[in-house]
């Protein structure tokens, strides 16, 4: 046995030696523990034993039996180590690696999906990580006209290397194109080439909040917030920007108002080649002379006007050149006026052109102030909505929201459907009508918004917002249909403070307060209010007691634009609103007695956006007999839904999106027999869908996009015989059961390329199916 046993041991050691050397190298490279130390010791013994055995004479029958036994024992020891002990180390390594991969995967998910969770000002684009961020520059909708000289002048300033930080201010009246100019600069190839991922775009507005601005920048760069004070926030921002070096940095502060110089000063850090571009209606002498943006000259004004007023196919009415010249002339070279007036005249008759010229010319002869002239010119475009009085009424409602803030289209449709008695499709049509006339901008968070207007947001120029407020402010306070109150600090309007019990007949009441407001409300009697919009910025906010007398209130919108989630006091007042149909809460901490407070017979829709849920939904018993729609979006502490939600048998739409900790739906989901739309987009920890989903026989739309942990669809999915549209974007790891061949009425699957390929195997069995590959991701709405 001696010779074959020796040969066996030699072969064993020779075969495993390369693997041992490779493991040793990797351990040194990655500073890993030495799990093969025991095996190395056995190999050393093996080498010594083989060396001794090779010297034994072939006829030494005394030593051969002794060493044969040693060879067998050592070979068995090596094999036992490889087959028993080493696999334990390997298993441990695999588990550790999987854990690290999961941590990395979670971070990537948060970067990819969480970039859109801020819900604050900022645009599309990419940050240092390659993901779209909340403070990236917005995209240009059209090629700027007449800004070539300004672009070249400012580019020279931005491209110049400076050892110290610099503030470059651009000033001009409202509507001159300052924001368009700043956007075009950020999108310029040379500017992007210099500043790369260090371009940050923040809209400041009339009532700036330093903590919110810094929070946006930290969110953009995926850094942790949690500031102790404003001073701490500014200090940490300086350190964060320094860490972005040595690349140059460009911070754009758009729409800075008079009195905000101190804010700009605080953001001016002593960092090499760090520039701040400020756009404003005002000049800031402490930062040096402003670059004064001029209105368009006649040639550029004519070019822009013709682009917008006349269809490219040449089919629209085109008056004599003299008429066009007069129309351009009354716009005074303001790009905003040219855009709005041009759009509103596109396709109109000769009589309409003549009427509009007279109106605008009359305004020009009476008014001397540029801004008043501009507002009157814009007014004529709003008046042109006379054939659609519904759209004009809807436009007037836009003054309900703070300037430079996104307005969810779903909020507007809630208001319009209840107050103006519009159908849902009519409300959406009015949005498009206003957009086509350049009175608002529509921003879509997904390419296909036809079935989900919750993915549409509205942006409005502050002058157009101001025009809506002016139009709504005619007549005495108590007789206005709409009452917009903008309260700075605790400076309550005199007319309100002087009256112990002010009476108003408004149907729409909007109150905007800033971060200094102490919730010290005066009394008001508003029995006719049907829509109440409360916009605030404080960490603690008290709902006004006068809500109790709003017997006709149908829509309540409470939005916190501040830095922290807000604690609401007096929330129990909601329980007294017997006619309330729709409630929307944004960025507030939902009180634990929420469900008890909203158990209203007429309530039809609940929307919770970026809220801290806490224990608010822990009660399994829910009495909401007429609720047909529930939307929960970006509520990051939502872990589970109460079982009682499955008792809401009238529910038609259930949307739980971007709730990253939600891992499962109630098992009795199938009890929602009238459910038509179920959206679960970006619930990244959702592990499975309940088997009872098959009982949702009225379900038309199912969206499980970006449910990254969902590994398979239940077999019962095949029982959804009304399913028409299925969203499965970024669901490539989700396995499709063979039973999907029974979804014969399924019209469209929208998914990423891999998901689309997995569905192609079932196309022969689903003759009505169209598979759409979805590639567009748009985060511009975050502005």
From TrEMBL:
Sequence ranges assigned to domain RPW8 in this UniProt record: 1-120
Lineage, broadest ranks: Eukaryota, Viridiplantae, Streptophyta, Embryophyta, Tracheophyta
A biological process term (GO) from this entry: defense response
UniProt cross-references to Pfam families, sorted A to Z: NB-ARC, RPW8
Protein's UniProt keywords contain Repeat: yes
Descriptive protein name: RPW8 domain-containing protein
InterPro entries documented for this protein: AAA+_ATPase, Apaf_helical, LRR_dom_sf, NB-ARC, P-loop_NTPase, Powdery_mildew-R_dom, WH-like_DNA-bd_sf
PANTHER family found in the cross-reference section: PLANT BROAD-SPECTRUM MILDEW RESISTANCE PROTEIN RPW8, RPW8 DOMAIN-CONTAINING PROTEIN
Keyword Repeat set for record: yes
Record family assignment: Belongs to the disease resistance NB-LRR family.
Molecular functions (GO terms): ADP binding
Keywords from the named record: Plant defense, Repeat
